Amino acid sequence: MLVWAVASQKGGVGKTTTVASLAGWLQKENLRVLVVDTDPHASLTSYLGYEDDKLEHNNLFDLYAMKNLTREGILHCITHTVHKGLDLIAASMTLATIDRQLSGRQGVGRILSRSLQLIEDCYDVVLIDCPPVLGALMVNALVASSTIVVPTQTEFLALKGLEGMVRTFTVMQRANQSVHFEYLIVPTMYDRRTKASVQSLSYLQTHYTEQVWDDCIPIDTYFRESSAKRLPLPLMDPSRRGAVAYHKLLRFLVERELNRNPDKVTPQLAAILADDGSGE
After folding, report:
1. How far is CA 167 from CA 36, 58, 118, 139, 161, in A?
2. Interval 46-59: pLDDT, tens
3. Which pTM does this prediction carry?
4. Interatomic CA distance for residues 11 and 133, integer angstroms
5. Is 33 helix (H, G, I), strand (E, B) or coil?
6. Closest C-alpha to 165, from 154, 149, 177, 176
7. What is the three-class DSSP state of 67?
8. Which strands make up the sheet holding 147-153, listed edge to edge?
């Protein structure tokens, strides 16, 4: 089972859209995918059509509140969405208090990692939507991941946010030598008609040569429509250019993991590299 965190210390760069779109393609490919919403604003939870106060199951806060992690307890925190194979651990506003709630608890940074290990036979991929603030929630997501996807809007302020995210990786690795982060920068909201987008993409490719994806996610108004319909774009209309771009990204990530973490790639996930992208 692979675990991908989608993280940035700047809001509005496409984190939730990235998680929803990759999850949509994985579901469309008949794979087992779990999405974990770790942002107290619960944007991903809402994107998939749920409100945390109306869910029958527990949410992520309840997972963190467990004194003893058990497989049964973690499974009880999972909501099965209307899309077969696409499951959710929902966020709630109570997550905003999690740093205080976990204060003094031993092994606080690896709670999510240990939880996912208990259910690793249930899924091909886990996608984690991170909050933009460095704290226990983001640390847990980063530590649990085999790859961190860093969406970066192709504009100046987002580039500054990227610098902060990379510094965070460096600081955490220096603080704990056993931690090493593999990350991929994904240029988002690219508009080739604007000078700002072109210059920003050029900057990313020049300054982050080995870490940046060699393609980009274009600006696409259908992302807004898909979120309004609470339906990931690949499930709403896979032919849209934004959906097509995320399919390319998914294939790139799978191929990358086959080279770096082949033992974590299930045969079913590896098989999508032979697919034509239709999801049929």
Report:
1. 24, 34, 31, 14, 10
2. 999 998 667 766 89
3. 0.95
4. 9
5. strand
6. 149
7. coil
8. 79-80, 86-89, 33-37, 125-129, 2-6, 147-153, 183-188
Q: Which two tokens stand for residue 177?
A: 């030598």
Identify the three-state secondary structure at position 269.
Answer: helix
pLDDT at position 176 is 85
- The b/e string for 29-59 (b: 16+ C-beta within 10 A; e otherwise) is bebbbbbbbbbbbbbbbbbbebebeeeeebb
Residue count (the chain): 280
Ordered alpha helix ranges (H), 32-110:
43-47, 60-65, 71-76, 98-101
Q: 3-state DSSP: the chain helix, strand, coil percent, rounded to 5?
A: 50, 15, 40
Q: Please list, residue by residue across 148-158, b when 16 or more beta carbons sit within 10 angstroms of its beta carbon and e when fewer do.
A: bbbbbbbbeeb
Place of tokens 């339906």: 231
